[in-house]
Amino acid sequence: MSEGADTPARRHAKQLFETVHGYTGTARSISAIARDLGLNRRTVAKYARAATWQECVRRIPPRRPTSLDAFLEYFRQRWDEGEHTAKVLHQEIVAKGYRGHYQRVKMAIAPLRRGLPIDTPRERPPSPRQVARWSTTAPSRRGLFAAEALGRLLEHCPELDRTHNLVRQFAAMLDTRDATSLPDWLNNLAASGLPALTGLANAIREDQPAVVQGITTALNSGVNEGKITDLKLQKRIMAGRAVVPLLHQRVILMAHLRRRYP
């Protein structure tokens, strides 16, 4: 790919550079800007120090040659002829002397399925945990990259779009501490057509009064849950062999150390 090619990474770098430098003259600290943009302080500092947005673009090392390079033009030709099955293409180049695995052929022709040149580097997809974090983060606190990447995902995945909308509806109930719409939300959850969300709706209905209390009040059991987790940790440290007197001493000691060294 050419150095000046228009890619999502380059567009993101340019947009973020302009946003960070838009704070010039506002006398705001790097930490304050990072909080406003929902970014790491080091990222904001890097963009603030840069003279141009091109300095912030991650340098992609040149692609190493592989044993498939000799067959790329053959793949393009066979694709245009209508052969889109990776296994068939693998069998054909094996007959021509290729000794690699079928999965490498499948990965090599993947860009063709998306209408891209066969040697175009593909953007690394986000992990499920990363997408979950983006969805549960308030839109106003998402970074520019997260907002852009999540928008592309929601546009191409209707199931994820429905899930995201339901997550944001529940977040709105938590923000306003108003559980009035919880029954309708549970009905939408059950009617989503997604088995995991349907199961979640059934589980919440079994303990709905407690969920309502959790939404509408500022009280929670977080402190108690933390203490229980800490106690279980102390027991695991002793490989399950700690008797009650020893656990008692360890818990007291840890509480004392945490108060002394917060």
Description:
α2 packs across α3 (41-49) and α9 packs across α10 (158-176). The longest helix has 19 residues, at 158-176. The model has no long low-confidence stretch (mean pLDDT 83). The chain is mainly α and 262 residues long. It has helices spanning 8-21, 30-37, 41-49, 72-81, 86-95, 102-108, 110-113, 128-136, 144-156, 158-176, 182-190, 195-206, 208-216, 222-237, 244-260. Among the domains are: 8-56, no CATH class; 69-113; 175-220, no CATH class; 222-260, no CATH class. The protein is built from 15 helices and no strands.
Question: Layout of helices and strands, plus pairs?
Answer:
Blueprint: H1 8-21, H2 30-37, H3 41-49, H4 72-81, H5 86-95, H6 102-108, H7 110-113, H8 128-136, H9 144-156, H10 158-176, H11 182-190, H12 195-206, H13 208-216, H14 222-237, H15 244-260
Helix pairs in contact: 2-3, 5-6, 9-10, 10-11, 11-12
Task: Characterize the overall form.
Answer: extended
Quaternary organisation: single chain
Helix content: 55-70%
Return the structural class.
mainly alpha
Instruction: Write down how many β-strands occur, each being a DSSP E stretch of 2 or more residues.
Output: 0
- Cα separation of the termini: 51 Å
**pLDDT averaged residue by residue:** 83
Number of helices: 15
Low-pLDDT segments, ≥5 res? none
How much β-strand is present in the residues?
under 5%
